[in-house]
Amino acid sequence: MNLTIEDTPEGIPGVVARLRAEFATGRTRPLAWRLDRLAALRALLTEQAEVFQQALHADLGKSATEAHRTEIGFTLNELDHTVAHLEEWLRPKPAAVPEFFRPAEARVVRDPLGVVLIIAPWNYPLQLALAPLVGALAAGNTAVVKPSELAPATSAAIAELLPRYLGAETVAVVEGAVPETTALLEQRFDHIFYTGNGAVGRIVMAAAAKHLTPVTLELGGKSPVVVEPGADLAVTARRLARGKFLNAGQTCVAPDYVLAIGDTAAELEKELAAAVGELFGDDPSLSTDYGRIVNERHFDRLAALLGDGRTVTGGGHDRATRFLAPTVLADVAPTAPVMQAEIFGPILPVLTVPDLDAAIAFINERDKPLALYAFTESPESKRRLAEETSSGALSFGLPVSHLAMPELPFGGVGESGMGRYHGEYSIDTFSHSKAVVDKPLA
Ligand code: NAD
Q1: Per-residue pLDDT, 1
Q2: Which end of the chain is more exposed for a tag (fewer CB within 10 A), N or C?
Q3: Among this protein's residues, is 22 annotated catalytic?
Q4: 218 flagged as catalytic
């Protein structure tokens, strides 16, 4: 099903009304319905893996391995974890009753919300549409999914296949760009889950305010990396390069820039160049493991940043194929354009700071990041970074991977977003924790 405002007989209000009517039947509440819908979603992801893989390759040049690891397999892991724990998560939680009210029982029950809207971006266009859907269905809701128009092949595959597997009464896919999303946002939803940039996040939140609809905003920003003397710089560089150049740097939690403390920069730069060579060979344009920039607008934006420092490795680019080499820039000034906004591409600036105090001050002078990474052997530095900075996530020694740990909440703070999901946190997001009290009448 490929809905736009013009070609849907019922129009967007009708689509929402259909999903609301289904929710109102009460069918979506029992555990059995939820597990059945999740099983259907599992079947979709496994039976149509090839279709999604090809779509992801067409949109972003993703290799089959990356498509599996970061999109299809990722979503399956999230789904399997949810299925394994759902019964336990939905069990009412007993609450203590103060003596004054006894005899009475009290409990917390997770109630489904109704119809939720999921708006997804283009960079992990399958995962970021369907992993939130796992939570929405597990919590007993129906959903409208709005994939990103900037990943058109994946959007089309989702639109065609999702309602076929899950049923048009459970989920609707609305494809399109600003007009379609604007029309959707005029409707009343019971929750809006948006992943993307902060400018649109503000539009979503303003539209949600009209209906007093709660929102989750999964946004982005510049995620810093702190490297301290004493850290193994070869290991640091390998892990940094893997996290940064995954999906050609178009990852919300990609390391955005490095704050190299003391004299670590020179050695780290050498190791980063070696790590890029190890990962993608001498000519990354020939590597089947290396992705492409999503479109020409983003390519031009990124190409304009290549001169913002001394090129340690990379710099090569080709507009016709939207190839931009994994690039490390050194001697970058904090005032350089590359340091002003989230890079969201394969360019890694390295800045030098004298000590941990300076690194912490640098981080705290800027927006709260979605993730903060540090490579250090010092427990005292880890403690200080944990206590003196604020970020969506904090990871020592391992960039990006926290989002694949379903027992961890995933979300931002401040400019990097509000709300969280994955695993049980998704159930919280897509349910209402209802207080229930039961006192005998006699
Ligand atoms: P995008 O351009 O695909 O936009 C996201 C969604 O918003 C799309 O579905 C799009 O149709 C819709 N949209 C765009 N303009 C709109 C408007 N004016 N009104 C209503 N809806 C509109 O993706 P993007 O925003 O370029 O994505 C990149 C950003 O997302 C980066 O900042 C990145 O860090 C962030 N991101 C965050 C996460 C996370 O989980 N926190 C994940 C991926 C990306």
Answers
A1: 44
A2: C
A3: no
A4: yes
